[in-house]
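The passage that follows is intended for readers who have already worked through the single-chain material. We present the inputs for a multi-component assembly, then the predicted structure in tokenized form, and finally a short commentary. You are encouraged to pause after the input and sketch how you expect the pieces to fit together before reading on.
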Amino acid sequence: MSIGALISLAFTALIIENVILTQFLGICPFLGVSKKRSSALGMGMAVVAVIVISSIITYVLYHGVLAPLEIEYMRTIVFILVIAALVQMVELVVKKISPALYKALGIYLPLITTNCAVLGVAIININKEFNFIQMLVYSTFVSLGFLLVIYLFSMLREKIDSAPVPKAFKGTPIALIVAAILAMIFSRFGGLI
Amino acid sequence: MNKGLISGVVLLVIGLVCGLLLAVVNSFTSVIIKANEDAIVLASLNEVYEGSGNYDLDIVNGSGAIDKIYVLRDKLDDSIVAIVYSVKAFGYQSDIKMLIAVEKNDQSALVFAGYKVLSQAETPGIGDVIIGYDFKMDGQLITNIDAFAGPTATFTSNAVKTCFQLVSARVAADFGGIQS
Amino acid sequence: MNQKDNFIKGFFKENPLFVTVLGTCPALAITKSLENAIGMGIAVFFVLVLSNLIISLLTINPKMKEFIKPVRIPVYIVVIATLVTIVEMVMHAYLPALFVSLGVFIPLIVVNCIILGRAEAFASDNKPVDSIIDGMGMALGYTMALMLISLVREILGSASITIWGDLALDITPVFTFIGIQPISMFLQPVGAFLTFGFILATLAAITNKKSAKLATEVKQS
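Having made your guess, compare it with the prediction:
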């Protein structure tokens, strides 16, 4: 596995196969928590932290426990419980270590359990048969892709708020149309490789 | 009794029941899933080496990049007619799995008899190119890797070439006598 | 609320996808074809109805409910994840093609907010029969919404509807008559966002018109 292949894996995870715009994972927070730039940034960073940590734990659990015991079918249950417990733990730790950070991220953390990007990435890591380093690169850049797009999107939405939008399109519909244009732009990056 | 403890026990019991249920369902479905997957492999085997069904089939577990080795033997004298390798290499962002068949030609030289890409999760639109793409390896001597003509210098195409190289490196020894 | 209203509400008044905008990830990802939408709908139906039933049975006894309360979210998650895994295994065994095309979105039913939402908001406070009816209504409403999106996308994107290998409907002549090609963009992510956005806007327009009409009627009387 060369460095070049790792870089292309990272670029693909970040842009070409962007987790929100082409894989449709994490659409709920993407539409729900992107009305303001500050909240989008907070949500995005919380997601990056949780995805990277949960990917490592689930990967080790799968290859260290589930696969040797041949109970791969317990995957979904184990992964979602790990993620739920992890989110609670991250919440407690952040609260204790940095109250300021907790204030910024606190309200987004509980929402992450049901963010399908987290469980999705954990499962994709297994399905694609990544080795440890690939898994690390992939989950880091996928989650950074989430942060990038949700932040870009929140800036667009702040502008749209002050624009005259037809009454029927107010709220979610116009957000989806903007997301469509964003998806169109991102899909074109595929030609780079 | 402590309330929290009972709650914990309730959760544990529900978890155990669920785990047991899954084990039972799995014992039924895993057999069918395995059979389905084998059927797909055997159908593909016939695609890379026509008439596979006419020979005796040995399946040998490989190691590393070579997952399985399917040895086709003559039904009468038990000599090796062809060997089909299930081999994988890392492509653009996932493993490329392919089947490569090798047989002896008229001059008793080893040649690639056929190949097929089994599965790949490459980027749609980029990876799709390799399915049905002619790498011009049919009938080539196993030593003649340079005949390879894929879309040049993409990760995907390099991975396919790597698969051919892996097979080329060991097939002569396997024809000499493979032991399962 | 009678049982009929309880069943019907999932279709229009509280449609999980179009009104409460839950479960959007699969709605955008797997609606490339009608066949996928139906497959997803069946999976969600099975999981939602059974999870509603099991959770309402678990909480039917007030004492039991008391014990479950502090650990209710993990309990719900375990029950739902088990059902989803069963669906995943059965689909892998009997419908391998559908299993491959739905891919990661089958295990992801676990985090579909509709299911956890119904468990928390309805099943834990209602009788088993009502919970089953609620689950059926919600799941069918969701399936209907998925089918609507996929119909638009598949017709515009490939000018035909294909179900399980048999060509069910070919409307290429209509496209030729109008003089346009199938718009493959609708099969790509862009099309998913666009279709969903326009359907939501259409529904909003209808609702706006209705409420405006209602307002004038109230004024007149």
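Commentary: Chain B has a mean pLDDT of 75. Chain B has two domains: 1-48, 54-176. How closely did your sketch match?
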